[in-house]
Structures are given as C-alpha cells and as structure tokens.
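INFO batch 0412 | record 1 of 1 | parsing
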Amino acid sequence: MNYKTSERTHFIVFSAAIAAIYTVLTLIFAPISFGPIQFRVSEVLCILPFFTPAAVPGLFIGCLLSNFLCGAATLDVIFGSLATLAGAIGSYKFRKTKWLVCVPPILANTLVIPWVLRYAYGSEDLILYSMITVGIGEVLAIGVLGNILMSALNHYKHIVFGRFSAK
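INFO prediction complete | emitting tokens
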C-alpha cells in the first residue's frame, strides 16, 4: 500500500470515527442536547481539530447526523451543522495557540443557534437571552470539558493520532 492511500484512508477513518462518537454522545444525551437551554456533551469533541484535521469533517458530519436523527428542524440540521463546521475550521486555524482552540466553536454556536431556535422552532425567547443560555452550555462543554479532554489527549497524542496529527 502506498503512503498517499494510507494517509487518505486514515483521514477518512478518523473523520468517520469522530462523526460516530459525536452522534452517539448526542443521541445518548439527547434530552439535554437541544433547546434554548442546552448542554451538548458531544461538543467536547470540538477541540479535536487541535490534534487532527480529520476532526473538521468528522464534527460537521457528526452534528449533521445528530440533528437529523434526533428529528431537528431542517433549518437546525443545516445551520446548526454549518455553525459546527465554522467552529471546527476556526479551531483548526487556531491550533498553534492551544488555549484559543475552544473559542471558535463557542462563538459560532453562541451566535448562530439562537437564530436557529427563533426561526426553526419559533422560540419566543429574546435572542440575547438565547445567546447567553447557549453560550453557557458551550463554555461548559467546550471551554471546561473540552480543555480537560485536550490536556488528557495531549499526553497520548502520538499514540492516538500518530504521524497524522495536525502540524
């Protein structure tokens, strides 16, 4: 097997594994993963672009599948997943500064999801109130739990991510 094929296969497998883990975590914790006050445990994975670029499509596909399988509104499936994609791309761009990796997904979801809640579900909450509640959930999931996961994975990054980790 040549190196290029191996690298491509590894990227696809890692992306699929991340998407599967994100989806399973969202499904298991579905009661607290949706709504104006939400704590999506699967968002902890948004720090993974720090370790591998395969996390970017993995997080997007995982969010897309999660929203679809949990019966989210079409606007939520589309724009919620795009917010996750924007956050994942931002995390990958900030991978050189470890403590900034969690900022893009927190901001993307805090700014986008309240509008999704308003237009997809008819939420009558003020946008600012929704930004605060969604933002708190994101800070807890990504900022707190994500940084704990990042610290733990950082010790084993060469074992878990191997030579395909982010440079």
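INFO post-check: The chain has a mean pLDDT of 93.
INFO record closed
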